[in-house]
Design a protein that fits this description.
36% of the residues lie in helices and 20% in strands. It has 17 helices and 20 strands. It is globular and about 65 Å long. 48% of the residues are buried.
């Protein structure tokens, strides 16, 4: 049985999914006078940007570090109007990262000049190449952002002339970071150090877009890394509250099962209430002249739209590869990890065996005894995730759905326990004092991510950031179905907190342009 429902309000738009992309798009449009309805299948907004309670601990599910510090020029007005600037505190990380390599280590700090000088001291034969690397990375990023920030005739002229004026940026669009490092440096250790946080982006340096890497990495080089005090859920909650204040609604526990279309395009959605096995059988419908999908684009096209709709777009999307997933081990402690031998907030462990960056992708697929991981120790900052007397840390690594799919439930659980034991034993080898201080451990696998995020193979990255799938090569905000838009890590510019929020802003700008909105009162109801 399907029941049509206008809820109790008239909505100008519906957003499927309350991840950062969807919430940003809804909040931007709410600020223009549109009443937005956001529906999410989970029990809380945020998508991958969420945190949850476990006893006296707040578990951080997604955010390790963001280059945002709350002062971003592109988001200044948005942060101010939604209340993010006033409510959210971005805590600076004490360092960008510390890497344990095979036989060496290095701390990449927040003082860029100091880090560069220490790299030159460690690799004296690469001094000129180190300068060249940072010069090129910043040049590529700055030129790309300059084009993006231009408008109208000026932007058109810059794009047309970019082969001559912005040669490096154009070349970087088709290049990968692996080849770039090989052409710049000879020492493999130096390449490994500069790729230590590749887990933020993708698992293979020879696939990872040089342009995307340069833009994202430049943000960290210049601003350092930051964490949202109290958990990343604060960011999602703040945007949700703003949408509600503007006359909209954010409803969780609503699983959208279909996007409704008519001769004019998308016109509403069909959904059921409840989560997991508690989903209700009765389907409800709500209508609006605008639908924004903050869901995985393959799911939108293959599961939410009729097969007769968007056939060409569906074929095009099938050619794109999805990114990897992430395995996370959450560790609650009875005292801070910094009192048990750990000195860093973000540690990248690549020390299991010698390797070259050409072998890095293979290493990310290795057995869990050897696979590299990042350890984030939230007790190194004022994270407010637990009491000052306790500790909370997350070990994360690349994960792949094929390693978990097809297992009967009992074998899946046994494998999870075995992996957890293996990873904890690896930690105990690094920090023997950790013994006896672990209160609780939980593991989330690619299969967990697939269930929670409802993404193909549990990817947390959307489409892989391969050179020909990154940035301008990703889907834009407009779908081939009229009145249906996209805002997520699957679109331009890509994943990460900043990327997802940028996708929402890009989507809202497209809607505002298409609807011809010129003032906030135009759509007020």
């Amino acid at each position: 049985m399907v029941k049509d429902k206008m809820m109790e309000q008239h909505y100008n738009g519906i957003v499927i999914g309350a991840g950062l992309g969807g919430l940003t798009a809804a909040a931007e449009l709410a600020g223009k006078g549109l009443r937005m309805l956001v529906l999410d299948q989970h029990t809380a907004p945020g998508g991958a940007a969420t945190s949850f309670k476990r006893g006296d601990f707040i578990y951080e599910a997604g955010l390790h570090m963001t280059a945002s510090n709350g002062k971003d020029r592109d988001f200044h007005h948005f942060f101010e109007t939604t209340g993010i600037k006033e409510r959210i505190h971005f805590v600076p990380a004490p360092e960008f990262y510390h890497i344990y390599g095979p036989g060496f280590s290095f701390v990449f700090g927040n003082d860029l000049a100091d880090s560069i000088q220490r790299l030159k001291t460690m690799f004296p034969a690469e001094r000129a190449a180190i300068d060249k690397y940072f010069r090129r990375i910043f040049s590529i990023s700055d030129c790309a952002l300059k084009i993006n920030q231009s408008r109208g005739i000026r932007r058109f002229g810059q794009v047309i002339s970019s082969p001559f004026i912005f040669t490096q940026t154009l070349i970087s669009m088709f290049g990968n970071i692996g080849n770039f490092l090989d052409h710049t440096f000879k020492d493999e250790r130096l390449k490994i150090i500069l790729l230590a946080n590749i887990g933020y982006y993708d698992d293979d340096p020879y696939d990872l877009s040089l342009l995307f890497f340069a833009i994202a990495q430049s943000g960290y080089y210049r601003n350092g890394g930051h964490y949202i005090q109290g958990g990343s859920r604060q960011l999602a909650d703040t945007m949700a509250e703003y949408i509600i204040r503007k006359g909209g609604a954010v409803l969780t526990g609503r699983q959208v099962t279909k996007i409704l279309t008519d001769k004019n395009g998308a016109c509403g959605v069909e959904f059921v209430k409840g989560t997991g096995p508690d989903k209700g059988p009765e389907k409800e419908r709500v209508f609006a002249p605008l639908v924004i999908a903050n869901a995985a684009i393959p799911r939108v096209l293959n599961a939410l739209l009729d097969t007769s709709v968007a056939r060409q777009e569906r074929k095009k999307i099938r050619k794109l590869e999805v990114g990897p997933s992430i395995l996370s081990l959450y560790i609650a402690l009875d005292k801070p990890l910094k009192e048990l031998g750990n000195a860093f907030y973000s540690s990248c462990f690549y020390d299991s065996r010698p390797f070259t960056i050409r072998e890095m992708a293979e290493l990310h697929h290795a057995d869990f005894e050897w696979r590299p991981f990042i350890l984030c120790d939230y007790s190194q900052i004022d994270s407010r995730l637990c009491s000052p007397n306790n500790g909370f840390a997350v070990l994360s690594m690349f994960d792949y759905y094929k390693d978990w799919s097809g297992l009967p439930e009992i074998f899946y659980r046994r494998k999870k326990e075995a992996v957890k034991t293996t990873l904890m034993e690896r930690l105990y080898r690094h920090f023997p004092q950790l013994h006896g201080h672990v209160l609780r451990t939980e593991v989330a696998t690619a299969k967990t991510m697939e269930r929670y995020l409802q993404t193909p193979e549990g990817t947390a990255y959307g489409f892989s950031q391969k050179a020909r799938q990154a940035l301008l090569f990703r889907p834009g905000p407009r779908s081939s179905v009229k009145n249906l838009y996209y805002a997520s890590a699957w679109t331009m510019p890509g994943g990460g907190f900043g990327g997802a929020m940028s996708s929402g802003k890009i989507c809202a700008d497209a809607v505002i342009k298409d609807l011809g909105i010129t003032n906030p009162e135009q759509y007020a109801v």
